[in-house]
Amino acid sequence: MQLVDDAAEGGKQQQGQLESAPPASAPLLRRTADHLGFLPGGMALMAESPDLLTGFLTASGQFERTTLDPVAREVLAVLDTTGRVTEADLAAFLGHGYTRQNELEVTLGIGACTMSTLANRLTGAPVDPQLAAFA
Question: Is pTM, for the whole model, over 0.70?
Fold first, then answer.
């Protein structure tokens, strides 16, 4: 398992954060690293607050289990309407076979992404090489 990219400048720092994570965060980080094959720097930094890390992982996991297909989740999660969806846009969304449940699940995805983005910015987390293409 690769916890960090050896070429990454912060590799040793991230490894150290995994080893020195608060007891409540350490198993969550280990499971994440096992699942992804590396430990994202932002998550290592989020670990300082076990409650934030738990909340982020819970919301992300719930969003992954929503009824939206992966492409729809990705497209809808990046829309920035701050909840002010017009009736015409909602009708178009529903017209493609989505439901009111799907509409509300978008909120869950945006919440999980928002937690991650704000925590990453607050902690100055670097973009992991494995995720650079999506940044």
Answer: no
